[in-house]
Structure of JAB domain-containing protein:
Amino acid sequence: MKPVGYLLNTPGGPAGEPGPFYNYILAGNGLFLTAENPQLRALISLAEARVRGLWPLEPLLELRHGRIPAQLLSLVVGTMCACPDREMYASIIWDGERYAIRLPEQERDAGHVTYETLRGTVAEIHSHGKMKAFFSDVDDRDEQGFLVSVVLGRVDTLLPEARARLCVYGYFAPVRLAEVFEGLPPRVEELWNIR
Protein backbone atom coordinates (compact mmCIF):
# COMPACT_ATOMS: atom_id res chain seq x y z
CA MET A 1 0.00 0.00 0.00
CA LYS A 2 1.34 3.41 -0.91
CA PRO A 3 1.23 6.05 1.87
CA VAL A 4 -0.04 8.84 -0.41
CA GLY A 5 -2.93 9.03 -2.86
CA TYR A 6 -3.08 10.90 -6.16
CA LEU A 7 -6.62 11.97 -7.03
CA LEU A 8 -8.49 14.00 -9.67
CA ASN A 9 -11.38 16.23 -8.61
CA THR A 10 -14.19 15.22 -10.98
CA PRO A 11 -17.84 16.33 -11.01
CA GLY A 12 -18.60 13.30 -8.82
CA GLY A 13 -15.87 14.15 -6.30
CA PRO A 14 -12.25 13.04 -5.97
CA ALA A 15 -11.47 9.97 -8.08
CA GLY A 16 -8.52 7.64 -7.72
CA GLU A 17 -6.94 5.49 -5.03
CA PRO A 18 -6.64 7.41 -1.74
CA GLY A 19 -3.63 7.01 0.53
CA PRO A 20 -3.82 6.33 4.28
CA PHE A 21 -1.90 9.47 5.32
CA TYR A 22 -2.78 12.18 2.83
CA ASN A 23 -3.82 12.77 -0.76
CA TYR A 24 -2.76 15.09 -3.52
CA ILE A 25 -5.80 16.27 -5.48
CA LEU A 26 -5.51 17.89 -8.89
CA ALA A 27 -8.50 20.23 -9.22
CA GLY A 28 -9.78 22.78 -11.70
CA ASN A 29 -8.00 25.53 -9.78
CA GLY A 30 -4.71 23.83 -8.90
CA LEU A 31 -3.03 21.21 -6.76
CA PHE A 32 -4.35 20.55 -3.26
CA LEU A 33 -3.36 18.37 -0.33
CA THR A 34 -5.93 16.77 1.95
CA ALA A 35 -5.49 14.92 5.25
CA GLU A 36 -7.60 13.89 8.19
CA ASN A 37 -7.26 12.31 11.61
CA PRO A 38 -9.59 12.04 14.63
CA GLN A 39 -8.93 15.70 15.55
CA LEU A 40 -8.55 17.54 12.22
CA ARG A 41 -9.64 17.53 8.61
CA ALA A 42 -7.87 19.83 6.17
CA LEU A 43 -7.57 20.71 2.51
CA ILE A 44 -4.80 23.14 1.56
CA SER A 45 -3.79 24.70 -1.73
CA LEU A 46 -0.24 23.84 -2.82
CA ALA A 47 -0.20 25.53 -6.24
CA GLU A 48 -2.70 27.51 -8.27
CA ALA A 49 -3.35 26.57 -11.90
CA ARG A 50 -6.28 26.38 -14.29
CA VAL A 51 -6.94 22.78 -15.24
CA ARG A 52 -9.72 22.31 -17.76
CA GLY A 53 -12.17 19.48 -17.20
CA LEU A 54 -11.71 19.26 -13.43
CA TRP A 55 -13.81 20.83 -10.69
CA PRO A 56 -12.36 23.48 -8.35
CA LEU A 57 -11.77 23.05 -4.63
CA GLU A 58 -11.67 25.48 -1.71
CA PRO A 59 -9.25 25.28 1.25
CA LEU A 60 -10.74 23.85 4.43
CA LEU A 61 -9.80 23.49 8.09
CA GLU A 62 -12.16 21.56 10.34
CA LEU A 63 -11.50 20.95 14.02
CA ARG A 64 -13.61 17.84 14.61
CA HIS A 65 -14.38 18.77 18.24
CA GLY A 66 -15.06 22.44 17.52
CA ARG A 67 -12.80 25.41 17.98
CA ILE A 68 -10.51 25.50 21.00
CA PRO A 69 -11.80 27.62 23.93
CA ALA A 70 -10.18 31.06 24.01
CA GLN A 71 -9.33 30.75 27.70
CA LEU A 72 -6.82 27.99 26.88
CA LEU A 73 -4.98 30.34 24.53
CA SER A 74 -5.15 33.07 27.20
CA LEU A 75 -3.60 30.75 29.80
CA VAL A 76 -0.76 29.78 27.45
CA VAL A 77 -0.11 33.41 26.46
CA GLY A 78 -0.04 34.44 30.14
CA THR A 79 2.37 31.64 31.01
CA MET A 80 4.70 32.51 28.15
CA CYS A 81 4.58 36.23 28.96
CA ALA A 82 5.67 35.39 32.51
CA CYS A 83 8.87 33.81 31.11
CA PRO A 84 9.97 36.16 28.30
CA ASP A 85 13.68 35.37 28.56
CA ARG A 86 13.35 31.78 27.34
CA GLU A 87 11.37 30.16 24.56
CA MET A 88 8.58 27.86 25.71
CA TYR A 89 6.29 25.16 24.26
CA ALA A 90 2.72 24.14 25.06
CA SER A 91 0.51 21.52 23.48
CA ILE A 92 -3.28 21.60 23.25
CA ILE A 93 -4.63 18.08 22.99
CA TRP A 94 -8.05 16.49 22.77
CA ASP A 95 -8.23 14.17 25.81
CA GLY A 96 -11.36 12.34 24.65
CA GLU A 97 -13.76 14.74 26.38
CA ARG A 98 -12.35 18.25 26.03
CA TYR A 99 -9.35 20.28 24.94
CA ALA A 100 -6.56 20.44 27.51
CA ILE A 101 -3.17 22.14 27.84
CA ARG A 102 -0.07 20.02 28.31
CA LEU A 103 3.43 21.28 29.04
CA PRO A 104 5.74 18.38 28.15
CA GLU A 105 9.36 18.15 29.21
CA GLN A 106 11.40 20.67 27.28
CA GLU A 107 14.84 22.20 27.07
CA ARG A 108 14.60 25.98 26.89
CA ASP A 109 16.87 28.96 26.40
CA ALA A 110 16.65 32.41 24.83
CA GLY A 111 17.00 31.14 21.26
CA HIS A 112 15.37 27.73 21.09
CA VAL A 113 13.10 25.19 22.73
CA THR A 114 13.40 21.44 22.28
CA TYR A 115 10.35 19.27 22.96
CA GLU A 116 8.56 16.15 21.85
CA THR A 117 5.16 16.55 20.19
CA LEU A 118 2.52 14.75 22.25
CA ARG A 119 0.15 12.19 20.78
CA GLY A 120 -3.26 13.74 20.09
CA THR A 121 -1.90 17.27 19.71
CA VAL A 122 -4.36 19.50 17.88
CA ALA A 123 -2.43 22.75 18.29
CA GLU A 124 1.04 23.49 19.49
CA ILE A 125 2.08 26.91 20.70
CA HIS A 126 5.63 28.03 21.17
CA SER A 127 7.14 31.37 22.00
CA HIS A 128 10.08 33.15 20.48
CA GLY A 129 10.56 35.12 23.67
CA LYS A 130 11.46 38.73 22.98
CA MET A 131 11.83 38.17 19.22
CA LYS A 132 9.08 38.75 16.66
CA ALA A 133 6.48 36.07 15.95
CA PHE A 134 7.71 34.22 12.85
CA PHE A 135 8.13 30.64 11.70
CA SER A 136 11.83 29.85 11.45
CA ASP A 137 13.63 27.23 9.38
CA VAL A 138 13.94 25.20 12.59
CA ASP A 139 10.15 25.41 13.04
CA ASP A 140 9.73 24.19 9.44
CA ARG A 141 11.90 21.15 10.21
CA ASP A 142 10.17 20.45 13.55
CA GLU A 143 6.57 20.80 12.38
CA GLN A 144 6.29 17.82 10.03
CA GLY A 145 3.12 16.34 11.52
CA PHE A 146 -0.54 17.21 11.05
CA LEU A 147 -1.58 19.98 13.46
CA VAL A 148 -2.01 23.71 13.93
CA SER A 149 1.07 25.64 15.01
CA VAL A 150 1.01 29.02 16.73
CA VAL A 151 4.11 31.09 17.40
CA LEU A 152 4.11 33.95 19.91
CA GLY A 153 6.63 36.77 19.80
CA ARG A 154 7.46 39.87 21.79
CA VAL A 155 6.05 38.25 24.90
CA ASP A 156 7.93 40.83 26.97
CA THR A 157 5.60 43.60 25.73
CA LEU A 158 2.04 44.62 26.56
CA LEU A 159 0.90 43.41 23.13
CA PRO A 160 2.52 40.08 22.19
CA GLU A 161 2.36 38.99 18.55
CA ALA A 162 0.84 35.73 17.31
CA ARG A 163 0.97 33.95 13.99
CA ALA A 164 -0.72 30.64 13.10
CA ARG A 165 -0.42 28.06 10.36
CA LEU A 166 -1.72 24.65 9.49
CA CYS A 167 1.01 22.01 9.20
CA VAL A 168 0.25 19.04 6.98
CA TYR A 169 3.21 16.67 6.80
CA GLY A 170 5.78 19.28 5.79
CA TYR A 171 3.41 21.60 3.92
CA PHE A 172 2.22 24.82 5.54
CA ALA A 173 -0.79 27.10 5.08
CA PRO A 174 -1.49 30.28 7.06
CA VAL A 175 -4.65 30.27 9.17
CA ARG A 176 -6.36 32.91 11.23
CA LEU A 177 -6.46 32.36 14.97
CA ALA A 178 -10.26 32.74 14.85
CA GLU A 179 -10.43 29.59 12.69
CA VAL A 180 -8.83 27.64 15.53
CA PHE A 181 -9.86 29.41 18.75
CA GLU A 182 -13.29 30.60 19.92
CA GLY A 183 -11.87 34.06 20.46
CA LEU A 184 -8.63 35.94 20.94
CA PRO A 185 -7.16 37.24 24.17
CA PRO A 186 -7.52 41.04 24.20
CA ARG A 187 -3.76 41.43 24.60
CA VAL A 188 -2.64 39.57 21.46
CA GLU A 189 -1.90 41.12 18.07
CA GLU A 190 -2.43 38.66 15.22
CA LEU A 191 0.01 38.83 12.33
CA TRP A 192 -1.40 37.41 9.12
CA ASN A 193 0.94 35.61 6.76
CA ILE A 194 3.02 32.45 6.66
CA ARG A 195 6.37 33.80 7.84
User: Anything to note?
Assistant: The chain has a mean pLDDT of 91. Residues 70-190 form a domain with the Cytidine Deaminase; domain 2 fold (CATH 3.40.140.10).
